[in-house]
Amino acid sequence: IDGGALFAARRQAQNVADAAARAGAQQIDEDRYRATGKIALDNGWARYVARQYVAETSGLESTVDVAGNQVIVTVRRDVPLSLLKLVGIDRVRIGATAVAEPFYGITEGGR
After folding, report:
1. Using alpha carbons only, what angle is made at residue 19 by residues 91 and 3, rounded to the nearest 5 degrees?
2. Residue 106 scores a pLDDT above 80
3. Pairwise CA distance, residues 1 & 49, whole Å
4. Does position 76 have pLDDT exceeding 90, yes or no?
5. 106: alpha, beta or left, given left = phi > 0 and alpha = psi -120 to 50?
6. Is pLDDT of 77 > 60?
7. CB atoms near residue 29 (< 10 Å)
């Protein structure tokens, strides 16, 4: 029972982290793109959108970092346990991290 609960919670956390990172990576600095033709993140908006996504869809604890053109989202939560309470383990902390970056066009190599 506890193993299934932990697996499901971890999968949900990874889904949230993935989606939040992708949402943040869509926040392009449009002025820079128009001026130079180069894709760059609007760091403030990328951070804000990723945090809002986590807060509005899951309520998980999160940290969001922007490094260069990458949005890095880490989410965490405590998962209450059932059977392991019998041996004194009430909860386990799980987490997931995702990294996304803006991408434009089609390239070779499956990217």
Report:
1. 25
2. no
3. 35
4. yes
5. beta
6. yes
7. 19
